[in-house]
Amino acid sequence: MTDSIMSKAATMEIPINSNGDTGTLPEDDSLEQAAKLQWSLDEKVGSSRGTRDLQQVMVSGPNLNETSIVSGGYGGTAEGIISTSSIKGSNMHHSSSNSSMAADEATRGVAVEKMETMKKWGLNTYKCTKQMISERFGRGSRTVDLELEAQIEVLRDTKKKYENVLRLARALTNHFYNMVQTQHALGDTFADLSQKSPELRDEFGYNAETQKLLCKNGETLLGAVNFFVSSINTLVNKTMEDTLMTIKMYENARLEFDAYRSDLEELSLGPRDAVAMARIDAAQEQYQVQKDKYERLRSDVIIKLKFLEENKVKVMHKQLLLFHNAISAYFAGNQEQLEQTLKQFNIKLKPPGADKPSWLEEQ
Questions:
Q1: Mind giving me the DSSP string for 150-204?
Q2: Cβ proximity of 200 and 318 under 8 Å
Q3: What single DSSP character describes residue 22?
Q4: Is the dihedral of CA 279, 281, 287, 290 positive or negative?
């Protein structure tokens, strides 16, 4: 009904005079009535809508979780409504975003640190490789300590010779162990035949006793030789190897020192502007760090070589004396001297079958 009235009012004729201007219009009762009717309808619709909203609020009551902040009058448009639940959600989202940003920054910091480490490692490797190639082709200079390098070469040659002694001593131990086992079996066989052959009882009997005595002396000699092998193995594969590891670190430090020294010399021959001077200062710091490392490891190598030589003389003096006395007493058939030799060097023999696991361990 309202739409029809409005359309009627909108299509009313407006008289125009002969000059084309709108003349003075008399008051149109129908137009005024239509406007009044439209205003009264709008007021009724607004009042009825406000009454329904008020009744709904009074019945259901306000929900604190969905309390709204309204801009404008009551019953206005929803464009200015902000829900408190959306505010809480935005706060939670903001806190979670802060924590994720902190985690991202920590991860980024670790990644940057790793990249810096890889960069330094790559630069150091490049300089050392360049220095090594230059030395190999005779274009670069290297720091040389003739006395120390001579001692290192002597140590490496000595280690090779001692490794050969260790290999031969182990071979002797294995062969002698097999011989002792054969003598033991032969003695048991002679003893069994002496019981089963009455006519050769005496002959089999004293041969069995001889083999058993040789077997006992052989086990005593094996104890001395095993002690000799164990001591040589410790000297070669632990003491000498530890010194050689320090020497390897010293040689790497020498290469790094020469690489940074060459780099500093090249920069010193270049221009002396602000950028070049900054690079020279940084190279000077790195050179000093490498120099301190090189001198420290050089001192460690000198000390270890000195102590190694003293330890080697002491150990080999004792072990060579043991080996000589034990071998001489065994082949001379002097059982008392052989046993005395083991007591002199505090060597305790394991009882027969000590290496075998007990029946509880086998279960």
A1: HHHHHHHHHHHHHHHHHHHHHHHHHHHHHHHHHHHHHHHHHHHHHHH-GGGHHHH
A2: no
A3: B
A4: negative
Give the number of other Cβ atoms within 10 Å of residue 135's Cβ: 16
Q: Which amino acid is at 230?
A: S
Residue 83 confidence (pLDDT): 47
* Across 193-197, 226-230, 269-273, 334-338, least confident range: 269-273
Residues 56, 54: Cα–Cα separation, whole Å: 5
- The CA distance from 186 to 199, in Å, is 19
Q: What are the DSSP calls for 218-235, one per residue?
A: HHHHHHHHHHHHHHHHHI
Tell me how far apart the alpha carbons of residues 97 and 169 are, in angstroms, rounded to a whole number.
72
Structure tokens given for 345: 């060097």
Distance CA 85, CA 91 (A): 10
Dihedral through CA 312, CA 314, CA 315, CA 317, nearest 10?
110
pTM for this model (two decimals): 0.62
**Residue 221 CB burial class (10 angstroms; 0-12, 13-18, ≥19):** buried
Answer whether 306's CB lies under 8 Å from 243's CB: no
| Cβ contact 276:267 at 8 Å | yes
Burial of 132: CB neighbours in 10 Å, binned 0-12, 13-18, 19+: middle
Whether 83 and 66 have beta carbons less than 8 Å apart is answered as yes
Alpha carbons within 13 A on the beta-carbon side of 204: 15
User: What sign has the CA pseudo-torsion 176, 178, 180, 182?
Assistant: negative
Query: What's the confidence (pLDDT) of residue 113?
Result: 81
